[in-house]
Amino acid sequence: MVTGPRAAVREAAIAAALANMAAAQSAAQSAVILEGLADANSPLISSPETGLNVQRIAPGCLCCAGNLVLRVTLNRLLRRPPAQLFISLANAEHVDQLRSMLQQAPYGDLLDLDTDLQAQA
Fold first, then answer.
1. What is the C-alpha to C-alpha distance for residues 66 and 54, in angstroms, rounded to an integer?
2. Burial annotation 32-47 (CB, 10 A radius, 16+ → b, else e)
3. Residue 120 pLDDT > 90, yes or no?
4. Virtual CA dihedral for 67, 50, 19, 9, nearest 10 degrees?
5. What is the mean pLDDT of residues 17-34?
6. Rounded to whole angstroms, how far apart are CA atoms 8 and 25?
7. Which value, in Å, is the radius of gyration of the alpha carbons in the chain?
8. Which of 30, 31, 32, 35 is CA-nearest to residue 4?
9. Disulfide engineering: 119 pairs with which of 9, 18, 38, 114, CB 3.0-4.6 Å?
10. Which residues face 30 on adjacent strands?
11. For the chain, what is the total number of helices (H) and then of strands (E)?
């Protein structure tokens, strides 16, 4: 999960992590779930050539109001599980509850949660 003060900062941190991952190993299929509206200057663009799948979810707490939308998006993505999945949160207030949900069935068997990526301004 990726937290940070603004969408642009979170997206830049994800792009940097993906670039580091690609430099360290062969570029594998990756997915990103972004909470919030699209930014015209986003470095994250879905592309079959790069293997990046970017999904956007309307703003709203993914633990509370956006939970159903997050689950539907996750279920679709996990039909063909990506090697790497980033979930960018507009508000990190409920990150522990979201992490707990992702550790329960069915997601607990499909996802290995890493440490959170803290995007810095």
1. 17
2. bbbbbeeeeebebeee
3. no
4. -40
5. 77
6. 26
7. 13
8. 35
9. 9
10. 52, 84
11. 4, 5
Residue ranges per domain, the chain? 2-118
Q: Are 86 and 31 in contact (CB under 8 A)?
A: yes
Alpha-carbon span 72 to 94, nearest angstrom: 19
Return the structure tokens found at 36: 């919030």
* Residues listed for the chain: 121
The pair of three-digit structure tokens given for residue 80, joined into one six-digit string: 């063909």
Give the phi and the psi of residue 80 in degrees, each rounded to 5: -125, 85
- The kind and range of the H/E element at 99 are helix 95-103
Q: What is the pLDDT of residue 23?
A: 61
What does the pLDDT look like over 41-84, one tens digit per residue? 888 988 877 788 999 988 777 777 778 889 999 999 999 899 89
